[in-house]
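Re-run requested by the PI after the first attempt was lost when the workstation crashed. Everything re-entered from the original request form. Ligand of interest: FE2/S2 (inorganic) cluster.
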Amino acid sequence: MPKLKIDLEVNNRKVSKETDAHKRLLDFLRDDLNLTGAKEGCGAGECGTCSVFVDGKLVKSCLMPVAKAAGTKIETIEGLADPGKLTPMQKAFHKTGASQCGYCIPGMVMAATSALRENPSAGIEEIKERLGGNICRCTGYTKIFEAVELARDVIAGDMPQEALEEDAVGSSYIGHNVRRIDAPSKVSGRLRYAADVKMHDMLQLQVLRSPHPHAKIISIDTSDAEAMEGVVCVLTSDDVPVETDGFGVFVHDQPIMARGKVRHVGEAVAAVAAEDLVTARRAVAKIKVVYEELPGVFDPVEAMKSGAAVVHEYAENNVVKHIPVRKGDVEAGFANADIVLEDDFSTQQVEHAYLEPEAGIAYVDPDDVIVVMSPSQNITHHRHMLAHILGKPINKVRFIMSAVGGGFGGKEDMIYQGMLAIAAIKTNRPVQLNFTREESIIASAKRHPSRVHYKMGLKWNGEITAIQFDMVSDGGAYGMSSEGVMRKAAILSCGPYEVHNLSVDTTAVYTNNTPSGAFRTFGGMQAQFATESMMDMAAEALEMDPFEIRRVNMMKIGSKTHTQHELSAASLDRCLDAAEKESRWEKGTPNVRGDKRSDLGGDDTRAPCTLGARFTNDKHTDNERVV
Ligand code: FES
Ligand code: FES
């Protein structure tokens, strides 16, 4: 690879180095200078995690070729404060609790620092605008904006320095503002995520992924890739013991790499471990796979019909899991109703979009223990599965949970740690795999897209007499957490309401779509969307206030849930009272409210927003909102 000699200044130190000419400034800082505070969240200029100052200007270092940085002065998050110290901005982020997973925070601190350097008295709207190029998936931004305002006021002398220190907690932490103990490493960029860790002699792994949703693998020719200089090994399913290959949280249906056939676009087919990333990528491009395409199935309802393509031979009807719940007499409940409502609800696939793409390292330690370090949300389970697949005793497999740069359930499945482990065993060297953003989106599990057919019977007073709830969810190509998601959806299906007669079915179905898995609420969100929509529609049909119909049906102490759990505590009444009061709810049926509502647009009401448009906080009509 062509080399480039570069001279520049980084964090007040002269740097003179020879580097690869193709590198971006971000790679140079991270790989050549070990300054890993700048992160790669997207590699496309969208997220801001890679932000640094170049000659005093905030720049996304993933977009800047290293050659263009020659002769410049670079400032990274590591250079903002003296070693062991924090700037007022970093202290303010610590004070307000602005960092959660922390992956976005170095970039956020750089953007916030830039905002106040450009305008030390920036108001909140300007601060928001100046931070507009930085994405956070955890905090909801409020604490970040509070931090910037706090730092601004302290720097300007409008607030004392002590405002940045921890509040006194006295003899109890309860009711006090307590700072996170892990925040200093996050606001200073010192915390190392898996992609930030470097080991001596470490190889880089890259993965060949399926372009087809459903196809037989006729042959894989790795000879050209193996012959390349710098390639240390190529992996396929032949490197995994056939008898034990297969992982999954509930059903072990997913091979470490596709075995015999691929079941979704993006499935891992082969992998290359090489001396460097570029060689690994080039070698992956040289692997030749002959596929025979198979008919695919992409709709979960169609997938259950006879004659549909079968995704896994063990499940001829493509059902991953069906959870039925029955209580009382549903037919009698509907017969006893004054009104029966029926409708369909659907929710879409959702990507977790955690800021930290998947990453990991595996190595064999001096005691022959295979060690895997990754931001896994389920390491004990992964450890047991990997030990089984490798045929090793559990004490010869170790998982280390690295800092998780956001997961939201999406890092519960072992979709790459097995490949890393096998590569490390095969090469007897540390091996690292860092996903690109595109790879993360194509290969990781998503929220289950679901369809619910809902039937609800009610008395004129709003009392629910019966519910029939039928949910079909697209589980995608592998089982992953589908079984747990279906259980939770079934348990939460009818909301916090006491229903004496109900019939609930939740079913996850295999298709050739990207696998579905765990995501915040684990199926509860899809179920609640249908139930709460139905409650509002029922309120409208019965001309009741939406709060009142919920009070009529809410569970109380002594109520039995539809899974026969008798409640010894219940607080929905207090939640409803508080929500009604704080929102200044204007009573009425949903269909008489419309434009006449007076409970929106108050001083403490958050203005609505949409992607790409900003709304004013003023009271507004629909036609006047966008500015
Ligand atoms: S903007 Fe550079 S990594 Fe996202
Ligand atoms: S704290 Fe911002 S992405 Fe997690």
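Saved to the shared folder this time. The longest strand covers residues 464-476.
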